Every structure is written in structure tokens, then in C-alpha cells.
Amino acid sequence: MNTTSDRLVISSRVSIPFSEIELSPIRASGPGGQNVNKVSTAIHLRFDIRASSLPEFYKERLLASRDSRITADGVIVIKAQQSRSQERNREAALQRLAELVRRAARASRKRIATKPTRASREKRLDEKKRRGRDKALRGKVIE
To answer: Is 45 a member of any domain?
Structure first.
């Protein structure tokens, strides 16, 4: 995982101080026997985008993204509970946060509109004519 002693590394130029990331242990839901009732192994990560030291570009892109993990207040909420180890869940949550920020930085390609080919247009029209003829034959028979 990309971390230094006090920062979560996003890219060569961008990193997030751990002081801006709130990690709290919680009890994991789901199966797990008696251990799940005693030990708080799941991790609840909260990261306030607006109050962070991220560059404005990242903040704008994150706030504009339609990710369900970002609240209306601009807080990223990630819950990690796959592992039975609190440390592995902590690493997984931090990794997901880093990936979310990295994905926001990538510019998606502009879609180029294409025209249907001549053959596909002709095929569509032939099909429409054939369907019309088939339906016309379904009418009442006049004697």
C-alpha cells in the first residue's frame, strides 16, 4: 500500500495526511460466530473533501462525481469489513480511498458520435418493410 509514516500517497505529487482521515473501529456485521460480538474488526473511514488539503482540482472532481460513498456534505464514507483482522481492514479502507481519489483525477475520454453505416441503414429499412408485410398479412381475409 502507498503510505509513508504520516501520509497516504495518492500520486507522486499528491498525498493526504492521516490527520485528515478519521478511522474508527466498529463491529462487523454478518456471520463470524462469537468473535463478531466481542471484537471491533471492521473499520469506518471518514474523509471530509472540503476541509482537506487536496488540490482544488481533486476536490471539484470528487464533489462532482456521482459516487454513493460521498455524502451530500462532501464526506467520503468507506466501511471495510472483509477481513477478520482490524489492520487488514484499515489498509483496505485506505486503499479504497486512494483509488477513489485517483479515479477522480483521471479525465474520461470524450465520446465521439458515429453515424450508422449505409449497409446497416439499408438492413434496418428492409427489416421494417418485411415486418410491415408480415403484419399486413394478419388482417381479415376478404372473400
So the answer is: yes
Rg (CA), the chain: 27
* Nearest-angstrom CA–CA distance, 50 and 102: 17
Domains in the chain, number: 1
Distance between CA atoms of 129 and 91, rounded to whole angstroms? 61
Cα–Cα distance for residue pair 9/130, rounded to 1 Å? 61
Q: Residue 5's Cα: distance from chain center in Å?
A: 27
* Residue numbers of the domain that contains 74: 7-105
Per-residue confidence (pLDDT) for residue 132, from 0 to 100: 94
Alpha carbon distance 92, 12 (integer Å): 20
Residues 47, 24 contacting (CB under 8 angstroms) = no
What are 12-33's pLDDT values in tens digits?
888 888 888 988 888 877 666 6
Residues in contact with 101: Cβ distance below 8 Å, sequence separation at least 6, in sequence order: 10, 14, 16, 54, 58, 62
pLDDT tens, 57-109? 888 888 888 888 888 888 999 999 888 888 899 999 999 999 988 888 887 78
**CATH for 27:** 3.30.160.20
Q: Is 140 inside a domain boundary?
A: no
